[in-house]
Write a structure and sequence with these properties.
There is one protein chain. The chain has 226 residues and is of the alpha/beta class. It folds into two domains: 8-125, Rossmann fold; 143-213, Orthogonal Bundle (Arc Repressor Mutant, subunit A), CATH 1.10.10.10. It has helices spanning 16-29, 41-50, 70-78, 93-101, 114-125, 143-152, 157-167, 172-179, 183-197, 202-213; strands spanning 8-12, 34-38, 56-60, 84-88, 106-109. The protein has a five-stranded parallel β-sheet with strand order 2-1-3-4-5, sandwiched between helices. Helix 1 links the parallel strand 1 and strand 2. Helix 1 crosses helix 5 and helix 8 (172-179) crosses helix 9. The protein starts with 7 loop residues before the first strand and ends in a 13-residue tail after the last helix.
Length: 226
């Protein structure tokens, strides 16, 4: 008989101690699972590109390379087939709701115990949505916010990266250098972002993103142009 492939889970968090807790939860919940650990969005991207198919990603919202919900947006755009559980110290119901709206299938507060972590992992691997007990996600959503969430979800992975760099105040030529593309390509991405978000300027695009993510998206220098 051929050997059944093991479940592959990637833990993306910049705190080694918490990665250890998640690894323990994975081992308890899924016997024989293959677990990879990364500490940044760049390392996560590389792991998913080189390590074969992943069955689940446990994603920290605040690790290096991530602003607000940008890591989740990028991951869902780049790998829509991979289920995601967000792990975060911020367990505000609005944050949890936003994660689910952006495509996460689960949300684990960092205060959860190993048993709860295991429960969430098993539920999401079975195709269910898992959020902490008692969290009400049924409250009405502001129509303007809901529309911007939908618009942000249409961005491609590269457009998410460009929007992140715009929020850092980088010029088009700087973004082009970081991404290894031409300035013309960056300008095309910026134009597409403005169209998709239905805004008129780079500053408005960053402000729109910051409204969705609270204060997590920086706005300093966002009005800079090439």
């Amino acid at each position: 008989m051929s050997k059944q492939p093991s479940t592959r889970i990637v833990i993306a968090d910049d705190h080694p101690l918490f990665r250890g807790a998640l690894r323990q939860a994975v081992s308890s919940a899924i016997g024989g699972a293959e677990v990879s650990e990364v500490g940044s969005l760049e390392a996560l991207t590389e792991a998913l590109a080189s390590g074969g198919d992943a069955d689940l990603v446990l994603l920290d919202l605040t690790m290096p390379g991530v602003q607000g919900f940008s890591g989740l947006l990028f991951l869902r755009a780049d790998h829509p087939e991979i289920p995601v559980i967000v792990v975060s110290a911020n367990d505000d119901p609005a944050v949890i709701r936003r994660c689910i709206e952006f495509g996460a299938l689960g949300f684990l507060p960092k205060t959860a115990d190993v048993a709860q972590m295991g429960e969430a992992i098993r539920a999401v691997l079975d195709g269910s949505v898992w959020t902490p007990p008692g969290v009400d996600l049924s409250a009405p959503v502001d129509a303007e916010v809901a529309d911007m969430v939908r618009r942000l979800s249409t961005l491609t992975p590269q457009q998410v990266r460009v929007l992140m760099m715009l929020s850092e105040g980088l010029l088009n030529k700087q973004i082009a250098y970081e991404l290894g593309v031409s300035e013309a390509t960056v300008k095309a991405h910026v134009s597409a972002i403005l169209t998709k978000l239905d805004v008129d300027s780079r500053t408005q695009a960053v402000i729109a993103a910051s409204k969705i993510a609270g204060t997590a998206w920086a706005t300093t220098g966002a009005a800079a142009t090439a």
